Amino acid sequence: MYISQITNLQTELNQKEAKVSDSGWIKAITSGVTHNANQPFSYRKIGNRVEFRGGGNFPIAGGYTFLIMPSGFYPSQEYRASATVQDSDTTKKFIFQVLTNGTCKIIHNTVSSNIVWMDGQHYYVD
To answer: Are 58 and 28 in contact (CB under 8 A)?
Structure first.
């Protein structure tokens, strides 16, 4: 009886430990993005939260797929956000989405010559 309780407890602890693991920062392998040399576009997963940092120059074309997240990093629901464009012109916008299959697409980008910073963007996998 006690052995099965201990086994069940160990299984539960292992599952919880897996949920809080940290992938560390991973430089994104992108399509069409020129990474900033000092702060390349990267992502990490801590528990069920995936976050981005760094940036680069992104393509302008709406609907363009610039990254496919690895399995285990897919959002539980579609995620859309705008990121900061390094420019004094506040009308310049970069809007992107992450689909539930891990595909990251540009929805709207009005600038290709300035860096887009992804710092602070995050979503959840469950």
So the answer is: no
